[in-house]
Design brief:
It catalyses: meso-2,6-diaminopimelate + H(+) = L-lysine + CO2. The protein is of the alpha/beta class. The protein folds into two domains: 22-265, Alanine racemase (TIM Barrel, Alpha-Beta Barrel); 269-387, Lyase, Ornithine Decarboxylase, Chain A, domain 1 (Beta Barrel), CATH 2.40.37.10. Helix content is 29%, strand content 23%. The protein has helices at 3-13, 22-35, 54-62, 72-80, 97-105, 115-124, 162-172, 190-204, 232-250, 262-265, 298-302, 389-393, and strands at 17-21, 42-47, 66-69, 88-90, 109-112, 130-135, 157-158, 176-180, 212-214, 255-258, 269-280, 285-289, 308-310, 318-324, 332-340, 347-350, 371-376, 379-384. Strands 1, 11, 12, 13, 14, 15, 16, 17 and 18 form a nine-stranded mixed β-sheet that branches. An eight-stranded parallel barrel has the order 2-3-4-5-6-8-9-10, surrounded by five helices. Strand 4, helix 5 and strand 5 (109-112) form a beta-alpha-beta unit. The longest helix is centred in the middle third of the chain and has 19 residues, at 232-250. It is globular, with a radius of gyration of 24 Å.
């Protein structure tokens, strides 16, 4: 896709607007499968939480992907999108036993990350295969809010609790068919990843009937020109060699599983917003757009850097701008960015808007959520309509009669 295509889409569908490039998603999927082509049994389970539009799920399903889900609602979306139950893994955190049982009843692979639910589920359903999420106590990830494998994390069963875990498995006689970990997102140091993998291999030796080992994901993608990223080819070579060695030691060909989300869809996404006001203050030039952190919260939540391009004036002289939104509190997309000269009415393109952008969007300030468009084989396909005022009111119950003053009774 080029700037001309994106500008045309804002004319056709309006702004703000999310646009996803199907070709980029496909190439990222192939890049990861090629990196691990030396593994006899590889399974990529797309992490639906990154971008859960039905059309995106259908695209990943057509590529041969499985699906990683964290809620029963994502499970149902996956089934609706055509994923077979056995190709979906359910990896929730802190949910009720009933929700896990509901997923299991649909034929989904369940992944349990705490001893309490493990014991309850194993006691009631010893014949249903279960994957166990391990916390390897390895700090990895680009931000404390997305690092989930450290000792203080709420995720996973601590490696120090393995004896207790094994006691539960023995007493319930439950079937453990998988071991899983996820250390965090935006991982750059593959040696840290490989170190955590060794902990997973050592844990796996305690279970004799495994079918797969799930190494999570968290591969970093570039957010700006020249940005560093996870070297998946190097990781592929090193982990493939080690995984194949372990399978020989284990005496069985296991499946190597990953659950990439951001890696597959982040770079495929473009978020387009129109400039409402260019405001000069004593120290800053603000470019205020018709959007805010209600549509793209990552810069405010994680401090993430999304490259911002003025696609209306791509050859203009570069100036410094702070790009801000219309939400009625601090709402900054980027401070003091070098961007081609901005005029009111210009369209700005925010890169890397495929992952955790629409899925984290809200109606804060009673604003509408934008439309979503999929660019597939050179054509634009609307995959979600722009919200209207009726959507804001849809589930509200108007109790205006409750506040009407009671009529005075007349004494006869």
């Amino acid at each position: 896709m080029n700037s001309k295509d994106l500008l045309q889409l804002t004319e056709q569908f309006g702004a703000p607007l999310y646009v996803y490039d199907a070709d980029k998603i496909t190439s990222q999927y192939k890049k990861l499968t090629n990196a691990f082509k030396g593994v006899p049994n590889l399974k990529l389970n797309y992490a639906a939480k990154a971008l859960s539009n039905l059309s995106i799920l259908r695209l990943l399903n057509s590529l041969g992907s499985g699906l990683d889900t964290v809620s029963i609602q994502e499970v149902k979306l996956g089934l609706l999108a055509g994923f077979k139950p056995e190709s979906i893994i359910f990896t929730p955190n802190g949910v009720s036993l009933e929700e896990i049982e509901e997923a299991a009843a649909l034929g989904i692979q369940v992944n349990i990350d705490n001893l309490s639910i493990l014991e309850q589920f194993g006691s009631k359903h010893p014949d249903i295969p279960v994957c166990i999420r391990i916390n390897p106590h390895v700090m990895a990830g680009g931000n404390s809010k997305i690092s989930v494998g450290h000792i203080d994390s709420k995720f996973g069963i601590s490696i120090h609790q393995i004896p207790h875990l094994l006691r539960i498995v023995e007493l319930t006689n439950m079937n453990i068919n998988g071991i899983h970990m996820h250390t965090g997102s935006d991982i750059l140091d593959i040696d840290v990843f490989l170190y955590a993998s060794e902990i997973l291999f050592e844990t796996a030796k305690n279970f004799k009937d495994l079918e797969f080992i799930d190494f999570g994901s968290g591969f970093k993608v570039p957010y700006k020109e020249g940005d560093i990223q996870t070297n998946v080819d190097e990781l592929g070579k090193k982990l493939t060699t080690r995984f194949n060695e372990f399978c020989k030691e284990y005496g069985k060909e296991l499946t190597l599983a990953f659950e990439p989300g951001k890696f597959l869809v982040s770079e495929a996404g473009h978020f387009l917003a129109k400039v409402n006001v260019v405001k000069q203050t004593t120290s800053t030039v603000f470019a205020s757009v018709d959007s805010g952190f209600n549509h793209l919260i990552r810069p405010m939540l994680y401090g993430s850097n999304h490259q911002i391009i003025n696609i209306s004036n791509p050859k203009g002289k570069e100036r410094y701008y702070s790009v801000v939104g219309y939400i009625c509190e601090t709402d900054t997309f980027g401070s003091n960015r070098r961007i081609n000269e901005i005029s009111e009415g210009d369209i700005l393109c925010f890169q890397n808007a495929g992952a955790y952008c629409f899925t984290m969007a809200s109606n804060y300030n009673s604003r509408y959520r934008p439309a979503e468009v999929l660019w597939f084989q050179g054509k634009a396909h609307l995959i979600r309509k722009r919200e209207t005022f009726d959507d804001i009111l849809h589930n509200q119950v108007d109790v205006k009669g409750l506040f009407e003053s009671p009529k005075k009774q007349t004494v006869k």
